[in-house]
UniProtKB/TrEMBL annotation:
Organism: Snodgrassella alvi
Keyword Signal: yes
Keyword Signal found: yes
Entry's family note: Belongs to the Skp family.
Record-level GO cellular component terms: cytosol
GO terms (BP aspect): protein stabilization
Entry-linked SMART domains: OmpH
UniProt lineage: Bacteria, Pseudomonadati, Pseudomonadota, Betaproteobacteria, Neisseriales
Keyword line: Signal
One GO MF term: unfolded protein binding
InterPro entries linked: Chaperone_Skp (IPR005632), Skp_dom_sf (IPR024930)
PROSITE patterns given in the database record: PROKAR_LIPOPROTEIN
Signal peptide: 1-21
The name this protein goes by in its record: Outer membrane protein H
Length: 166
């Protein structure tokens, strides 16, 4: 009896799944990482962020160069023993300042990047929804392990996003 119930349930579940799969007429896939790399808006955001954070990045590089110079001086053995201890202490302080500044820069950069890309994602989602409605898509997937290229509409989405920017 239990075996019949399980078989009936499995058959019902299979038929429902098949019916749902058959009801999907048009399927699309979006590679969001490509949209975030190749769209004009994404490239503009990246340039803007690079420009905004370049001065802090240069300052960080200068701190690193100064620390390396001090380390080389200490390791060369040319510093008198009386000054050596003070130089080592200074190098450790500089190293900590560098690490703190690097963490702060990374956090600030990631926060700004996330803010900027959130607006791009909203815009891309609007484009995708408009495209789905206009072109009659039943289902559009953004992330998947494998997708046949015939379902990939990423280029069309990038083209639509780029057209909006102009």
């Amino acid at each position: 009896m239990l075996k019949k119930i399980v078989i009936t349930f499995a058959a019902t579940l299979l038929s429902c799944t098949l019916a749902w799969a058959e009801s999907i007429q048009k399927l699309g896939f979006i590679d969001t990482s490509r949209v975030y790399q190749q769209s004009v808006q994404a490239q503009s955001i990246q340039k803007e962020l690079d420009k905004e954070f370049a001065p802090r990045q240069k300052k960080l590089q200068a701190m690193q160069a100064e620390g390396m110079k001090l380390k080389e001086a200490i390791e060369s053995g040319k510093i008198p023993a009386a000054e050596r201890e003070a130089k080592i202490k200074l190098m450790l302080q500089m190293d900590q300042q560098y690490k703190d500044a690097a963490v702060e820069l990374a956090e600030d950069y990631n926060l700004r990047r996330n803010e900027e890309f959130a607006s791009l994602q909203q815009n891309a989602n609007k484009v995708i929804i408009d495209m789905a409605r206009k072109e009659g898509y039943d289902l559009i997937i953004q992330d998947a392990i494998f997708v046949n290229s015939k379902f990939d509409i990423t280029d069309a989405v990038i083209k639509a996003l780029n057209a909006q920017k102009q």
